[in-house]
Structures are given as C-alpha cells and as structure tokens.
Amino acid sequence: MSEIERTPGGARGRCRSVTYGDFVWTVGTGTGASVAEQTRSTLAQIENNLKEAGTDKHRILEATVYLTDMATKAEMDEVWCDWIPDDGWPCRACVGTDLAPGDLVEVKLIAAK
Fold it and tell me: 4-112, what's its fold?
C-alpha cells in the first residue's frame, strides 16, 4: 500500500499538496491586486508545489479554478493559457464562488507523478 505524503500549508488544518501513489493533489492562492496578478502568483505557487512533489505542469490531469467574479474569467484565462504547455491541456472547470477575503482566484488540481 502506498504511503500518503502531505506537505503542510500556511494555515492550520490544510496541506498545500498531498501525494498518494502516482497522483498529486495541490491547491494555491496568490497575491496581487488584480485577477491576472493573483493568477500568475497562484500558478507559480502550484508549479513549485508540483516540483516539490516530483512532477510538473505537463502532467496535470484536472484543474478547478475558483473565481470570486466570473466576469474576470477572460483575464484569468489569458494568464492560464500562457502558463499551460500547448501539449498539456488538462480537463478544467471554472467556478464562481466566495473565497477568503482578498482572494480573487484559487486553483486546485490533480497531476500524475
């Protein structure tokens, strides 16, 4: 049986990534005043989480992007599409929802190791 590996996050009760077998689950939020800035910062954090877990953005299987305002989806998409490799498009959903104060974007994904 595979061991579950957990990488602690910045807040109590949460991990920034969990690895089990050949899969990695990770989540991130970023900093910045705009959706584009927060998306860039979030994706940089996620890229680092994936690297620490022994994988990379070419191996992303599924992603869910949470936005506080769906009217900003095009702004987020521009950054997302520049970040994702052309040969690595994952299955992705984008959801409008409330997030923690100050957060405009949150990204959660699953990648293969």
Answer: 60s Ribosomal Protein L30; Chain: A; (3.30.1330)
